[in-house]
Amino acid sequence: MAVQAQDEPLVRSLADLPLPERVAGAIKRLKLRRVIDVLNHFPRAYNVRAKIAELKSGDTATIVGEVTSANNKASKKRGFKLTEVVITDGSGSIKAVFFQQPWLTGRYKPGVRVKMSGPVDYAYGSWTIKPTIHEFAPPMEETTAPALEPEYPLSEGLANDEIAALIARHMALAPTIPDPLPKVLSESLRLMPLDKAYAAIHGPTSRPQLAAAQLSLKYREFFLIQCGLRLRQRSEEGDAALKIDVTDELRTRAIKYFPFEFTGAQKRVSAELERDMTRPGRMHRLIQGDVGSGKTAVALYASLLMIEHGFQAAFMAPTEVLARQHYASLTRYLGKTKVRIALLTGGMKKSERDELLDDLARGRTHVIIGTHALIEDDVKFRRLGLCVIDEQHKFGVNQRADLRRKGDRPHVLAMSATPIPRTLSLTLYGGLDVSVIDELPPGRKPVLTDWVHRRREAACYEKIRAELKAGGRAYFIYPLVEGSEAVEAKSAVEYAEHLKNEIFKEFRVGLVHGQMPSEEKASVMERFRKGEIDILAATVVVEVGVDVPEANIMVIENAERFGLAQIHQLRGRIGRGARQSFLYLFGEPHTQDAIKRLEIICQTTDGFRIAEEDLKMRGFGDFAGTRQSGIPKLHAGDFERDLDVLARARKDAAVHALTTDESLLRRCLELHFGREFRLLDV
Ligand code: ADP
Ligand code: MG
Prior knowledge:
The chain is α/β, with parallel strands linked by helices and 682 residues long.
């Protein structure tokens, strides 16, 4: 790992600079921490610097001039205040219009020099501008301002010229930014040199120059990411420490542990895992598949192969409910065998815990299951060979790494029920290992999904009543109330009371929510599983992996507040048994998007289709912004718009990654993406 010397100017912390508190705060909100981050803070747009007389209607322009008048007016729309500031630059005049900012008349008094950027329009004989940036202009401005005025992503309290000045102050460091690109490549592609590209992107003199700078930076960015991915693969090649043999005899023996036959998809993925484990090098694979598609079963199969060769396996789950669940199902498969499984929970007595940890350290326990409690210091293995990480995106990068460190570079198998659209995973994970289980175990009946309008609710309750009488069980899910677990819990509590006392008096109603102690949560879940409770009212805590095959009904309240992926995950809780299952979506969506979401959920149960729709609706930016996507935030490029540049960089990286200096690549990755890049780790 290339560690940066603390005194290197590019990685100097911005906190060390003498900045006004207001600016420092805004910079922090923009997640700019080091000098390099400021240089990588690229403009989101460029405004054409123009004389008013040269403007074209529809331009986005920057003009500099002097205020001639500033007045507040009442708008036609009642209660709105308009401020009109008229500016002249000698060639003509233009009117800037502001909404609801009457104090601006005090700031832009006649005679004051200003600079304004925004879309301009000509109508009824006069020019208007809707300023996206407006600030005081120094007298010399006219001679020094660039032809294309960069417009930066801003944050409250930070003016465009302030961030521009901060960048300019560090521009002299641009030539010290290391270039990851081999000379042969930059020459054959005729890319603008890195330092020139930095100078041009922050202060272009022409459109073609700007375009060349953008291409140069985008290409380098994609090249670096692609090399990073390959670097990781390279570091895992050749190590034979974990290599095992899988004979037909062993395969048959391992398969016998399962009371069912693997589906075609499970067999295919098992073979992929076997291939990883029987050749030198470390497995690093992600299994994607809908809830209930049998990922855990496959992971256990892989564990059994490792255990046969004297290794141990660890299953890490994001919640205790889920850890218990895994423990229950693994015990079901392996209870009567010699394979020893243990569950590490937070609430264990010290003596119990000591004994468990001792067994683990001595290798008497073969599989340990737990939450992130598994990464605590005192948890030691004798020979950890495989880490299984369920719902991997729920863990931080460091937590995942900490678990790996419990062994000597063990295999890693991550599982995720949040499908990444295939198109996207191919592009992004390029050379990475992703296995997909796209088939449900036989006998599952697809969940029938219905969007229930208010006036049909009563009829729906009757239907549910009939199902419950026939031995079914139901979840009632309440939406997450943003920002307040307490409010959320309260609404679930109230709702549970309502169900118990008004609607389903004759049935037993239980409640789980995020604020309950985990022991209590587990005990309510257990009673629901055993059938001592018919109706489980819950907040989204049940989202993650509960397995109650008898549960065949789910009602989601205020379904319009849930995202597509989330409803899909929730739906995976039912449809696990022989009984036909029903999902009822209650809600009154008010936006087109919300209506569309509910329609899609009613139309399909295919997780990948839903992921594609989700991507389409939310747009890539939003998708990439979520932690689960595991995609680093790009500075110059755009995964959606620059697919051609990405494709080219990927091809070139395949050829050049192996010959490019590894420490240089690592240094560049750390510099541009900081810790974020490691998110691309499965
Ligand atoms: P996931 O981890 O993808 O949520 P699991 O491996 O936990 O899925 O499987 C979900 C349920 O389906 C479990 O009860 C499991 O025993 C059962 N199951 C898994 N694979 C099969 C199969 N091939 N045939 C029948 N049942 C299966
Ligand atoms: Mg699961």
